[in-house]
Amino acid sequence: MDFELNDIQTMVRDTARKFAREEVAPLAAEMDKEARFKPELVQQMGELGFLGAAVPEAYGGAGMDYQCYAIIVEELSSACASTGVVVSAHSSLCCDPILKFGTEEQKKQFLPPLASGQMLGCLGLTEPQAGTDAGNVKTTAVLDGDAWVLNGTKIFITNGGPAGVAVVIASTDRSAKHKGLSAFIVPADTPGYRVAKEEHKLGIRASSTAELVFEDCRIPKDNLLGAPGEGFKVAMATLDGGRIGIAAQAVGIGRGALEAAVAYAKERTQFGKPIASFQAIQWKLADMATELDAARLLTLRAAWMKDRGLKNFSRESAMAKLFASEAAMNATREAIQVFGGYGYIDEYPVERYYRDAKITEIYEGTSEVQRLVIARALLRD
Ligand code: COS
């Protein structure tokens, strides 16, 4: 068992860390306040290979492993959780299903512009009545000659606003419920594809969370992703990978909060001493660091399993996301406590980390769903 990053992973971590500190961190507070992502970051991340990290070079990607991808998301999220999720949703929820389920033509057409950052991607799964009950999708896709015609509404779509392409889950056979769902690749410039609304959020405010509406949206017949009726499996398998990205995002957010708390504890004096000298503060920092290390190990184990092509890592990715999101909540809450009143105002970044952490317990499957996935695997084995 080897706990060292290999040479490539170390280089990727150092590059992502430098970029996060020098280019992303200085913009994070402003992007959060304005609830707007800087498009130049997308371009820069495309050039660095961060938007196609786990996409093979043959399709314009960086050809790295999923562990590298998780490392990148952690580093970016330690500076700005919105940047982390822009990369995570784009990579895990759009590039990955195209890579896994796409035909050669689909991969050649869609992956190079996604991997280079020419356009962002998103996944259209969630609907008002289909959140945790993801099989209850009502958006329809009807075959009409050589086109699929999509009608319906998707909500809470990460990257929904800027995305140039969406992987959309729609029903091709209502009577068959989840077995009647299919997946499609839908370019955003297709007539009938509309970004209807941007949500205003507690955290990850710089990232787009949008409502997408499809009204007689005709896409080529060949844009079916995977087999008809396989849409639910495409969605679930995609989320297995996506949850690794969110776990990495949570580790990054928690680590950002921990680093800020350590620095502050050394510099802030009370009773004539730095507060870091008090055991009450030391114990908080020790607990934060221990939970985050454990979360990172779970995350990298799940990524390692995906890299090895192991068939089923649902349980491990659910464990990683469950533990990491709760560790991020604990770390960010305790970081505010270390800062005291200064932690509660936006002069320091820890209140932003706290707001950003909460969503990691909700999206790509709530903590309750992760426990369900883990328990089902335990009871099945
Ligand atoms: N990979 C591939 N296939 C999977 C799978 C996975 N990880 N998990 C389930 N499936 C398959 C099952 O094998 C089953 O196939 P058959 O119908 O052929 O037997 C099918 O999918 C249905 O599975 P299941 O009965 O477990 O589905 P449920 O409706 O009980 O749903 C939960 C299970 C709740 C776990 C699932 O709907 C879920 O993950 N919900 C949360 C969705 C979510 O994360 N939403 C947020 C989206 S943000 S993009």
Notes on the structure:
It is a single chain. With 381 residues, the chain is an alpha+beta fold. The protein has 3 domains: 7-119, Butyryl-Coa Dehydrogenase, subunit A, domain 1 (Orthogonal Bundle), CATH 1.10.540.10; 122-231, Butyryl-CoA Dehydrogenase, subunit A, domain 2, CATH 2.40.110.10; 232-380, Butyryl-CoA Dehydrogenase, subunit A, domain 3. Helices cover 52% and strands 15% of the residues. It is globular, with a radius of gyration of 21 Å. The two termini are 24 Å apart. Bound molecules: coenzyme a persulfide.
Q: What would you say about this model in short?
A:
52% of the residues lie in helices and 15% in strands.
Key traits:
Butyryl-CoA Dehydrogenase, subunit A, domain 2, globular, binds coenzyme a persulfide, Butyryl-Coa Dehydrogenase, subunit A, domain 1, 10 strands, 3 domains, Butyryl-CoA Dehydrogenase, subunit A, domain 3, 381 residues, four-stranded mixed sheet, four-stranded antiparallel sheet, 52% helix, alpha+beta, 10 helices
How widely separated are the two ends? Answer: 24 Å
Structure summary, number of beta strands: 10
Order of helix and strand elements from N to C terminus: HHHHHEEEEEEEEHEEHHHH
Shape: globular
CATH class of the largest domain: Mainly Alpha
Low-pLDDT sequence parts: none
Residue share in helix: 40-55%
Provide the structure class: alpha+beta
What name goes with the CATH superfamily of the largest domain? Butyryl-CoA Dehydrogenase, subunit A, domain 3
Q: Which ions and ligands are bound to the chains?
A: coenzyme a persulfide
